[in-house]
Structures are given as structure tokens and as C-alpha cells.
Amino acid sequence: MSEVAVGPLEPLTCFSAWDLLEAAAVLGTGQESPVRPDVGAAQGFSAQLNRLDSESRLLTLSVVEWAYQAAGREPMMFGAPLPSPAPELDATAASHRAGEHLQVLLTEHRGRSLGEWIEVAVRGGFRAPDRLLPVLLDFLREHRRWRSEGVRVLGERGRWLARLNPEWSFIAGAGDPEEFAESSHESRVLTIAALRGRDPMRARELVQAAWKEEPCQRRADLLGALLTGLSMADEPFLEGCLSERGKDVRAKAAELLSRLIGSRLCQRMKERAGPTLRFTTKTFIGLGGARIEVRLPELCNASMIRDGIEPKPPQARLGEKAWWLLQILGATPLTYWVEVWRARPGHIVEALAGNEFEETIFEGWLLAAERQRDAAWANELLLHWPPRRPDLLARSLAILPEKQREEEVCRRIEENLESGAMIHPLEALLPAMELAWGENLGRQVLKFLQRYATQDDKLDPGTLEALIAQASGRLPPALAGEVVEGWPLPEHLGSSVHRALEQLFYWVDFRAQMLKELKCADSLATSR
Amino acid sequence: MNLEWTREQVLALAPDAASAQAARALSQPGKWSGLGRNQRAVWGEQQGGGKDPYRARIDLQGPVFKCSCPSRKFPCKHCLGLFLALVEEPGFIAQAAPPAWVAEWLQKHEQGIEAKARKTESQSTPIADPEAQVERARRRESRVAEGLAELALWLRDLVRQGLAMVLVQPASFFESMAARLVDAQAPGVARRVRGLHGLGGSGNGRERRLLERIAQLHLLVEGYQRFESLAFETQTDIRSTIGWTVPAEELLQGVGVRGVWKVLGRRAELEDRLRVLRTWLWCAEESRYALILRFAAGSQPMDLSLVPGTEVGCDLGFFPGSVPLRALEKSRHCAPRSFAGEPLNLGLSVKASVDLVARAFVRNPWLERHPMSLRGVIPGRRGEDWLLCCTDGSAIPVAGRFKGGWELLAMSGGRPLGIFGEWDGHELHPLGAWTRDGFCDLGWVEGA
What we know:
The structure holds two protein chains of two kinds. Chain A is mainly alpha-helical. Chain A has four domains: 11-71; 126-257, no CATH class; 270-370, no CATH class; 402-519. In chain A, 55% of the residues lie in helices and 3% in strands. Chain A contains 27 helices and five strands. In chain A, α16 (320-330) runs parallel beside α19. Chain A is elongated and about 130 Å long. Chain B is α+β, with helices and mostly antiparallel strands. Chain B folds into four domains: 2-122, no CATH class; 130-242, no CATH class; 257-338; 350-441, CATH 2.40.50. Chain B is 38% helix and 26% strand. Chain B is built from 13 helices and 15 strands. Chain B has a six-stranded antiparallel beta sheet. A five-stranded antiparallel beta sheet of chain B has the order 7-6-5-8-9. In chain B, α2 crosses α3 (77-88), α5 (130-161) runs antiparallel to α7 (171-183) and α5 (130-161) packs antiparallel against α9 (205-225). Chain B is globular. At the A-B interface, α1, α3, β1, α4 and α8 of A face α1, α2, α5, α6 and α9 of B. β1 (76-77) of chain A pairs antiparallel with β12 of chain B.
């Protein structure tokens, strides 16, 4: 081992003096590498240091060198360029207190009620507070399904921040048409979805411009984003997409076209649907005793497949031909039947009763009503839903305008309450209540819950808990004061129901405070 | 005066997240009966699970909490909920004369304070057996001398073996030396020896830091050997580093430093099974920092009543030394109020701050950390590391253990902001930040 030593040093190169000491110390003085006393800042003390043994000398030199450096410490230089500042012009950050709620939702509740926070914040013109942007971006990275919602409260500051961290690149540029060309694929989809609400034509043109460079699955994603603001102006482009090679792209385009009753695809469907159903009446006076005769389609040819008809049925319960019929009906404008049969929707649906293919045809028309947002048909379907298919009840309800849907759900709960038996299966109603609740529905559900909270023999406890859980996220916060009143005593409740109720009380209260903070008129003043 | 508290500051008193949540749920005045308040206190009854309601009361001059519930958390959710109700809906809590259960408590509580003060006085009266005490002090001196002599040999051994060997030693290797120092009545040195294990986790700087710490200990041994020849301040530094404490009564008797002290940040750490909470204060009039230490063992609740973002008017008694930072609260002359929403005129440039702390480290080379307030810095990222940069390019590295780099950048928006934190000689651990909108505690950041 050679001797660790250096000659006289300039103060500026003191670092290397320390490096030498450190090297000697790492090896240890037992390695016969005596440290010479003239290292670094200790020059000039060599006479005293020479008298020491090598351990003491190393320790003493280290002390001197360390103190010397600590005393003359200079700040380091950053060197790299700093990011350019975030845009000054931005949505107002929500208040610190509103942010507190957002933080709890993101970190402790995995996004429960997050949609509500975002909705109210956006309506008030607020974005997430600065300090929470990293938490929000991390959350969006982990929870893909929240991304299109989350982008709405990032603001300019959030988008600026996302551009600086590769982990958040999925969202960088999202919502900004100017950056479309440079954005990641996912950001492009988010941008299109947001832009369709404001400027559908510009959004479609962006998609068309990017079409060539996107691979098949991504093209399908972009088409999916066109759902918002869909109109006949999109028809030529979508019709062209039916000739694409990718199956997902074709299916997505056909799905969108089937919502446009003026589309060429819908006209072709009319021609396919016409021969399958015949509407007959026994008497010439009135329409009583009307019936529907069915002739299943014989084959599924290439042009049907091009128009999005899937040849293989998804479940065993449906035969091939019935499956084709269902899909044809789902893409045929409902107005077509009214025109060719000269009958009102009510009579048409009524004529279905007892039909061999009742469920198939019903589901086909329901699909059409969903796609065409046809509330009149939904209303008729609601009156005649096949009891064996509770899932179709909720789907019919979901098409109705908000107020009417709420009334219909309310009425059914009321009927359940009055009869003491479940005429309308609650499981079937639940999905129809995924949307916002008004105060009437809220009170009705509370009344129902209070009646059945102790009678879990009549009601599956799982369903009861599911309803309570739903209520905790949907009950209008205006009822926060009422929600705690009128319950059976805790000792009469099952422990799981009791727990669910505690959660309900807590959560409705939490949401009430959350909305209060967000709507607070002085949010502007206290935001920071 | 109670309105000066903000909701976040009240919630910051909560011992854990569950209590904070529960308190939020209890903060509606409608959930209470018998609510009332006066200048001094607030009280209310809460129907819990049992037959009798829980009686929660708060002396706002502390704040001091008391509740009849059996919860072992402190303050409990009832007290926090009551406090929140007061801060959020003061209009719902009427001014009233305190009922007996509140008045009695306030009185007892006050008597307790007086009794403590009397006890302090009586303790300062001459000791019963001065000779025995001198003898005890002499015995300790000689034990410490023996312990440090042993430490000197141990340190020599370390550098003889080489730091490469030392770095791979198990905790027990350091623990046995630490235990001998505890026996030698030098607990401060024992703690530093324990701290040599697992220094900074990993990275290239480990050898460097280890050698620095060893050098620091060597300097302590040398300093103690030449104790008599050193300046008084340095003697005090050496004694307090070794573990001699100044009796609190002595401090409380001396002249305090009066001022309005802003709480800029706090940080909890586990030191040998003891939870230690460091709370940093700043007084603008005096241009001076203060450090309040609080301790809790096991499940003992931690006193969290100095909340970042509030300021309190009080007299502090400082422990002596060449860089006096640690202090005790002697007396309070003004209840806490929030300054979080106000602009904060505080801090120096990176260069001036480095100069300032360098001077402190020169005066007391055994200093473990020093507070630092930076003005006009922008968070920057180099590789995985964060730095706080002045516009002239000078920069300060942020501690690797601090996990809020992106939060700081989000708050700054790429524009200068103010940062308060602990400087350990190499890195800054941020504890508070301020922009033109006001001050924000960073205590909620993971790893803070």
C-alpha cells in the first residue's frame, strides 16, 4: 500500500484533502498507510501532529478538516435550468378547507364521492389546491377510470406540473387541443372527450388528422371519445370507418352510427328489420288483440357483419338467430315501427305480451331506446317489462329524464312499502339509482330503510347494506340533519347493518360539509 | 380570541387520523347538548354509547382538554369535536356561566398550576444536604471522564480497523459502547454513538458522514480533557452535549425572552423508544429562533398544543450555550392565534443562510441541526434529488427523507417561495412553506 499523502494544497482544492483522509479512514490505519500531517487545513501544525501516533493524527486531522470546511461552506450551484413558471392565468384554487376534503377522498376513501367533489368544484370554477396536485396526479395514475374526471380540476397549474414528471406523462397536455400532436395517446383521448363538449367539429378533425399515425386499438379509443356531441356531421367519417381492418374500430363506429337514426347504417338496418316482424290486428275497429309475428333472420352475411352485427351469441340462453334479431332491432330507429305499422309505441309494446320471442324483442327495442335516448318508448317498455328479467327494468328507468326517473323509482319503493312485500325487486332498482337523488327519493329510501332495517328476514341483508351504502353517497346533503332520526334502537339491528348505518351517518355528514366548503362564497377570499 | 384558530390547526391537534375524522363528525353543534362558553373556556355534553353523556371541556388559555370519556387518546374526539364546533360555528355556542362541573375543573386546574409554581419555588430553596450534592456531582464528573476515556480508545479502534469494517457492524456493536456511556452518566454521548449505526441508510456520503461524526466525538473527548482552558460558552456546549441538563427551575427563574413567537414547523422522531417532538418557533422582534422539545414514551400522549401556523405571545427561557436554541415556555401573555393567511416576511437568500448556519456550527461544533428560513427559492430537481435554488443559481439540497418535493414545486408554480426547515449541516428538511397567499405547514407530507 502506498503512502497517502499530498503536498501543500490551495484552499480551493480542500475537497481532495478530505477525500484523502476519508480514503485513509476507510482502509484503517492498521493498513500501514500513515497519514502525513501536512494534509489540507492542518498545514502549519505539523510539529504538533508529528508527535501523535497515526490513529490520533487521523482523528485530529479529520476534526480540523471537517471544522475548516463547515466554517467555510459555500452553497452548491444548481447548474441545470429551472422549469419555466406555470401560467399565471388559471382557475382559482379551491379553498384550503375544501382541499382538506379532497385529500381525505383521495387518500383514505379511494375516490368515493370524488365525482361529486369534482362536479361541484368545476361548477364553481375551482380547481384542486396547489399542494394536493401531486396527490391527485398520483391517484389518477393508479386509477385509470378517474382520469377523464380528474383532468377537469387540474387547472393550468396541474397540467404544468404533470409535464415535469414522466410518471404523470399520461395526462400531460390532456384537455389542451394546442398540444394534441405532442400529447400521449391517453391525453389525446381525454382532450377529445373534453373538446367534444365545446367544439365537436374541431375534435373530430383532430381525430381525423391523427388517424393515420394511430394503431388500431388506439383508433377505437379515439372513436369512443366521439360519443359526446355526436351528430350527423360525424356520419360520413364513421361510415368510412366501417371499412377499416380493425374489428374494434368497426364495432365502435357501428355502435356510434346506430345512435344516429339518419345514418346510412340505420337505413340498412331498417331494410333488415322490416321482414322480421309483422304487426297484425284481429279486428279492423281499434287495435285490441294486436299481435306480432316473428320471422327470424336466416343468415348473417358479410354486409351485416360490416354493420357491426356480431355473429356469435354471447350467452347460451340465446339462439344464434334470435341474437341476430336482437342486434338488428337495437340498431333500427324506433320511429320506423311507428311509421310502418301506424300504431303508437304503447300498442306496439303491448302486442308483445305472450310472444315466443318477447324477451328478445323487448331487449332489442330497449337497446334501441337507450341508443336513441327515446323516453317515450322507455316509458312504454317500463309498463311491460318481462318479470323474469329484472335487469331490464333498471335499464328502462335509466333512460327516463331525471325527474321522471326519480318519480318512478319513488313510486316503486312506495309500492313495496305499502304492500309489505317486494313487488319490485330492490336489486333491480339499485342500478337505476346510480345517479343523483332528489330530496323526495332520499326521504323515500330512508323510510324504506327504517322499515326494513330490523326485518332482514324479508330482505337479503346484503341488499340492505348495498342500499345503505348507496344512500351514503347519494342522499342529498340537505337531508344530513334528518338522516340520523327515526331509526330503530341499535340493539334491534344486526351488527353489520348497524355498522353500515354508522357509515351512512358519517358519510352524509362528511358530504354535507364538503359541499358547504366548496360552495362557500368566501372560498375566493380564503383560498391559499 | 378562540376564533383565531383555524379548522386545520385544531385538526392538527388530533393524535391520529381516526380521531381527526371522528372529530369532524362531532363538530356540528346539533350533536351536543348543554353547549356554552365564556372568555376562558368552552364546554358541552355529548351522548355517547353509555348511559351518561360525555362531558368535554376546554380551557382555551392552553388549550387544555378534559373529557369524561374513557378514550386513551389525547385530546379525545369529543374535545376536538367541541373545539371544531367553536371554531366553525361560534354563533351556535352561547356565552354562559360555566356549570359546576366546568367551574370546578377550571378551579382545580388553576390550583394545579399554582401548586406547581409553588413546588418550583420550594425546590429552589437551599438543598438539604449541600455536601452530599457536591459529592454526587464529583462522582459523576469522574464517571464521565472514565467513560470518555474509554470512548477515546474505542474511536481509535474504529479508525485502526477502517470505516469499511465499521459500516458493516451490527447495531449491537454500537449499542455496547452506548450502554457503557449510559453507565458513565453521559447519555448525550451514548445517543450519538448509537446514531453511528445505519448512518443515512446508504449512498456514497456514508463514509464521509461517519468520519465526520467520529471526528465530532473525538473533538468532544479532547474538549472535555481541556475543559478548564475553554471559554464558558464552549464549556456549556460540552456539558450539554455530554448530557448534563440545566434544571428547568433554574431557567424559569431567569429572565425570559418576551415576544410573539410564530410556530414555523415541527417534526417527530423516535429516539431510543422515546418519541421526541421538536417544535420550532420564530420571533420577528428578536430575530431569533427557539426550539421546544417534548417527549412521550410508549403509548403516552404527545402534547401537540403548539400548532404550526399559529403564533403565541409568551416568555421563553433559553438553555445556555454558544448557540442558544432550546427553550422552555415560562409564561404566556397572549392566547394563540393563526397567522397562516397572512403574508410572511421571513427568510434569507441561500448564500446568507449557509453563512448564518456555518457561523453557528463554528461556535458550537457539536450542533446537530439548526433552523433555516429561505426566501425566494424555487424547487428544482436533479436526478432523484430535490434542491432549493435562488435565482442566482445557488442551491441547497433537500433531505432525501423528505417526500414532498413535488408538493413544494406545485405550491411554487415555478416561482419563488419561502421555506422553513431543519438544516443538519448537509441537507435541509423542509417543515413549512409560504407563498404570497400565506403559510402552509408541511407536517402532513409523508416522511415529514
